[in-house]
Amino acid sequence: MTGRRTLGLAVLMLLAVGGTAHADGGMRIDQAWTRATAGNARTGALYVTITNTGTVTDRLIAVNTPVADKAEPHESKMNNGVMEMRPLGPVSIAPGKTFTFAPNADHIMLTGLKAPLKLGDQVPVTLTFEHAGAVQTTASVAKAGAMSGDDMPSMPGMSH
Ligand SMILES: [Cu+2]
Predict the structure, then answer these.
(1) Which of 23-32, 39-48, 75-84, 148-157 has the lowest mean pLDDT?
(2) CATH number where 97 lies
(3) What is the number of domains present in the chain?
(4) How far is the CA of 1 from the centre of ligand 1 (A)?
(5) In 7, 28, 60, 149, which residue has its Cα 20 to 30 A from 92's Cα atom?
């Protein structure tokens, strides 16, 4: 692990501790990840698993990340053999339920990427819920074409 990444992670953890996630907010965020982008690609997709551990239905109303101009939940649907996508709108999650953004399914579209996403980087993400408020997480950057966030470099030190 590089010193640079360790420092970045420490800063992010401080942000998470000092962030705006409410103590009573019942949203658990797992497995946030995205994919490395090639060249000057301006779009990407973010994947994350959200579990409502609270007692009321909550809605994901906004997603923000400093690496892109816009982050918006999309749904993907096959239409006459063509994969089409469109904005999903606010995502409702009932108590005890889990919602997963995953490849070839619902995803969080990143548009206006400010720089290429590099393998092994950690991307700050803020998920804002109607009740739970803003919840901070970090997305790991997996390799291009990865189908899960576990598809990570075997030697993290080699990634820069
Ligand atoms: Cu999309």
Answers:
(1) 148-157
(2) 2.60.40.1890
(3) 1
(4) 32
(5) 149
Transcribe 47-99 into DSSP letters: EEEEEE-SSS-EEEEEEE-TTEEEEEEEEEEEETTEEEEEE--SEEE-TT-EE
Taking the centre of ligand 1 as the mean of its atom positions, its distance from the CA of residue 24, in whole angstroms, is 31
In a domain, 159, yes or no: no
Q: What's the 77 CA to ligand 1 centre distance in angstroms?
A: 10
Query: What residues make up the domain containing 14?
Result: 3-144
Task: Find the 107 Cα to ligand 1 centroid distance in Å.
Answer: 6
| Residue 152 located in a structural domain | no
Residue 37 in any domain: the answer is yes
**Residue 24 burial class via C-beta count within 10 angstroms: exposed 0-12, middle 13-18, buried 19 and up:** exposed
Q: Could you tell me if residue 151 is inside a domain?
A: no
Contact status, residue 47 vs residue 30, Cβ threshold 8 Å: no
Task: Give residue-wise pLDDT tens across range 127-155.
Answer: 999 999 999 999 999 999 888 887 665 44
Please write the tens of the pLDDT for every residue from 16-36: 444 444 445 689 999 999 999
Residue 101: phi, psi to the nearest 5?
-90, 125
Neighbours of ion ligand 1 (CB under 5 A): 74, 85, 109
